[in-house]
Amino acid sequence: MWKEILHPVFIFWLSQRWQPVVTAGDQEGIKKEQYELNRFLLIPLLRRKLLLPSMSFLLDDRAELRFLGHPYFLRFHVRYANQPLEMTFHNNTISLSVNELVKELSMDHLIPASYEEQNTPYPDFICRKMDLLDGYVELDSSDRLIREYLAHESNQLLKDNGSDSPVLPPYERYSLLDYWYFKGSLDIIRNYWIEMYKEIIGHLRLISLLDTDAIGGGTISSFQGAIFLQYRTNDQLYTVENIIHEASHNRLNQLLEVDSLFLNPQNELFRSPWRKDPRPISGIYHGAYVFTRVAFWYDRLQEVHPYPEIHERLQSVIDDLFDALSTLKQHGRFTEIGASLLEEMLLYYSQISKKNSRLTTFST
């Protein structure tokens, strides 16, 4: 059950919404956030038939009630936006009431496995998202908490990517072609680097698309298990690299939850091959980690498809990696795990650069 609930949006809500009101003893805030907790719990409880007699929810600003990692959601007329919704449960029936509106539906209507077996028309207020990739990674930017974060709290994500853009609007106009494009991008990774694909579907729960050219993508620790990607569907080589890049940032963020990896202070800055402004060792380490994996990806890809654009991109990545790894080796101070991970990066760099005639000796 916890595996279903531990979605990136839930992790964000827990640290950025629930914990502050509980810590402050804000009873009004706790009551409001209880609505959110109920929507996170409903589907896991339905699947296990563990239900209270009734549960209360709050429709969002679009009069929708969305469920994390789940392909079905409820949508009512916009006049019911931000209104409380009451659900009562009896046998296999759910009764819904919001203001004067009263509706009923079968519990099976919300469960995908049995939904397909329904012979009767389903209620018109149940909608289905066309955005689950292989049943593992959700493609979604429409959850209220995602939209609120991007509208009001994404300054750190922009800063981490060196952008001075004031906002990061979500991309929500998904089409079937978008679904095929991003599913196809994951399929490409699966076909050429199955280990990376398994890591992605094992650690990622959400890809959230951005309607911007301010950044190519990003991750943030409060959304563990999520990556944010620029909506761009005319360059699959770019998109696949971006997925591997941001998924690797996400993986390193998860490791940072259990070990600090680097010991240099944040005010100790060095030149970065990927940014105009000097960066702390932590930023250079992050860059080296993800671009080592990007280099590994292009090295594998060119073995099968030795096209010039793949080779040129690999050469560029290798050259930048040398600069970053040199800085880490000369100036970085690390924990035991951080040092071990750096040795892995150096080994991969040496193997890949030697194969591509770019081997350069690191200074000691």
From TrEMBL:
InterPro entries: AKG_HExxH (IPR026337). It comes from the Bacteria. NCBIfam families: mod_HExxH (TIGR04267). This is HEXXH motif-containing putative peptide modification protein.
